[in-house]
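Lab meeting notes turned into a lecture example. A postdoc, R.K., suggested we walk through two folding results consecutively so the class can see how the record format repeats. The first protein's sequence and structure tokens come next.
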Amino acid sequence: MSNTPRYNFTNFTKLIVALALLVGIVVVAAQDLAPNMSYAKLFAYIFIGLAALAVNLVGLSVIYLNISQWVLRKGGTDTAWFWFNGEPKGLMAVRERLNKD
């Protein structure tokens, strides 16, 4: 049995149609906010805004992943240790037992 995912063309088509309808709804709703702007120009502004948001999200993801890798390389127990006050219960005992062996 293969572990490769199976892509269904009809589901992909439904996704594209749903996205197009959502974008259409947003453009029509935004037209009420800027009535003197054409649909094409409004769509372009929305598209540029979404593209900028996507670039920012990807950039932040790369930054956070690099920080997490650095924490693990420097001996951090968990990449979320910034948010918690100390080590998990029992971890020190496990480390001492491992050092004795």
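The second example is placed directly after the first for contrast:
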Amino acid sequence: MNKISRIISKSTFPTVRMAHALTISIIADLLDYVGAPVLGAPIMGDLFDFIVISYLYSITKSKVVLVINLAEFVPFIGDLLPVYTVSTILWILRESGYDDLISAKKVLRYISMFVFNSRKVH
């Protein structure tokens, strides 16, 4: 019985945590982008950021994710980049065994190119 519970906790629970954290971070970034008029107010936006950062930290228990998510409090960086999604993807890569710095740089480069290219006016 103990062996079965270890197998289940090693395979299922981390995957559910990763999916939950990624879902929350994508929704939070979308709300941050779409709800800019409401969440752009200093008190409301900071309260929203604090709640999301606390919730993501409770899921991931990662100090790296916490520090990266603190970039949401920087006025223009938090508005332009999907900080929650990037930090969660980096956490998923680290938890999955891709702890290489090159992988993290590639993810950040790809997401920043995608965000900045999609916001250009044609």
